[in-house]
Protein 1
Amino acid sequence: MKNLSYIILDGNLTADPEERNVAGGKSLAVFTVAVNHTANNQEGKEKDDVSYFEVEAWEKLGENCVEYLKKGSKVTVMGNLKQNRWKSPDGENRSKIKVTASTVRFDSARKKDSKAA
């Protein structure tokens, strides 16, 4: 039986999505979503905090993200968590958790075309 690692993020892009071409000719968009939330500090008092999540969107989903999303765009991302592991050049074990998007909802309002009546 497979385990579940599903996540839903609601936040804003920190920069324009970056388009990458990977082996096999597949397209990939990579972007970071900032999620604002409230956290408790060491004294137990609430404070505003922000977390940053790196998101990968593949193929057509990624192409749409590159075309329609920009820095500051509000999005809701649904997908799976993925941990990448590697050894650094100095031999230390490293890891990074990313979100592989299955759905990206574009929540920012579309700007009206100034030529429209």
Protein 2
Amino acid sequence: MINVVAENINIMSKYTGNAMREKDPKPIQEWAIKLTEKGADLLDLNLGPARKGGPEMMQWLVQTVQEVTDLPLFLDTTNNDAVEAGLQVYKVKQGRAVINSIMATPERMALQMPLVTKYDCDMVGLMWGPDGIPRDENERAVLLDSMMTQAAEHGIELERIWFDPIVVPVSSQQQELQGCTTFMQWLPDLAPGSKSTCGLSNVSNGSPDELRDILNQVYLCILKKCGITSAILDGFDEAIVKIAHDEEMELENLVGRIFDGEEVDTAGMSKREVDFVKTARLLFGKSLYSHSWLDL
């Protein structure tokens, strides 16, 4: 079982975004309550760049959400002042706040890691380096080492870091996705005791809407097999939440067999099982991506 970090309270959402800009608490609190009831373990509060009025908006948002739920919160914005403002008013209930995220660049680590110790919070360590998104597992490992070194210098234990490998779209970066998967297999040994997370839906970016769910669901099964401890996903998607919470173990075990190198015979399987097998093969790079992979 892994933690569900619900991504729904987002400035880009028409429903909650308008409420944030207008400081209308009702829609935001309604969703926070529903997401809690549907099994979210944490809530991601995403303000985006928050260039205008970011600190005030983040403080208001944290306080608004914490009035109706005790779940820990990811504070998600590239505006460092807004992150600190949110941390100033955050109340520890079921867990510490989490800064989402700190890039593996010298300037962002120097700017934001002091907040982790100052406010006794956790952080997402994003494998985004000086040259952008890493190309493979080896480049991710180099960034990881750099971030662990800097974290140690700031007195931040590995248990306080949620490493994010940066999931890339299988539709346009199928080969690069293998580097993300391999890195996640390495992570428990490279950073023992750390946590991990990812923006799960990135894997299906660029794919037709009707195919995105199956990609997200199967890749979550793969990441769970790699040892991931949480994922940022749609908290209203009951199917993906079930997988996160170990309620689809037959499908998860089926993907695990492919993960372990078994040539799975699909004869006699249901359509959903066959779709999972085909999609797992695609995500492992055993078949080339096309929008029609399920029909082949």
Protein 3
Amino acid sequence: MAEDTDDSEKTEDPTQKRLDDAFEKGDIPKSQEVSSWFSLVGTALVISFLAPTMVSSVSTILKGFFAHADTIAVDPGALVFLLEITGPEILGVVALPLLTLMALAVVGNVVQHKPLWTAERLKPKLNKISPLSGMKRLFSKDSLANFLKGLVKIIAVAAVVFLVLWPERDRLDTVVFRETGLVLEEVRELAIMVIGAILALMTVVAGADLVWQRKKWFEKQKMTQQEVKEEYKQSEGDPKIKAKIRELRLQRSRNRMMASVPDATVVITNPTHYAVALSYEEGMGAPQCVALGVDDLALRIREVAKESDVPIVENPPLARALYASIELNDYVPEEHYAAVAKVIGYVMQLRKKKSWRS
């Protein structure tokens, strides 16, 4: 669905979850020019430092065969024997250059993003084999941009090679008349010059392409406002549902609190805005708050208290002070001991009088 969304509607920056999902699917910002740059660096290192030793070693290995080429049997058995002798030696000579090129090819990918293992790219998808999808990709803006980029790069590289070799045209004319060893050295020097110039050009190209690819990838990951809302619902839950759950929890908490009011010792009121129900029994360190509320909840607490014959004492300063300094099921703070003790004492006297009358 996201792929069918008009890009003009994608105005929101991607969330971290969106970026993580893209990474897990193997969709990462990658510049092929950076990988080519590292491969070119590997080629320059091989030619500059390893080529002379490699050529000398291979020449030594093959010199004897070339000197006696007319005596070497060419039947299958002899050729297999020849490969068994020369193969390991030649492989040992070219192993280091090959490993160097392979290592830099890996580095060219790793520097752009941390190693990522995913099978998402291996999953078969119908749009990959669909002729219509293939035609759309072939004639897409990205394909046109890549074609133009490749064409410009070829022209630029050709121009650099021309500018490097043109001043050396006199040397090239006399190369064929020199000894083999000198020819190889001449070719090596010219190759280093050409590769160095191309490497300088490709450094600029790779840097610009890396910035462009990251910007294009980030733009592709942008989201519409609706996608942001849907993702929030999936990760955090629907706000309406969460609000309903909070409301239900609050209602259950209030119901449990109201169920404790009939067992309260006294309810201290404002008299109309605040109500704090306290419970106290002999042996307790301090009275405990079993219910409290303001306005409608305070009215409900007073009504339940009346129905349950719980004493209601009007003391506005104390009611406001207790509501501001106490939570449900907390004990009365020390600073209110004296005031609450007077109220509790008053309630105890009322209970005694009632018991005497009865």
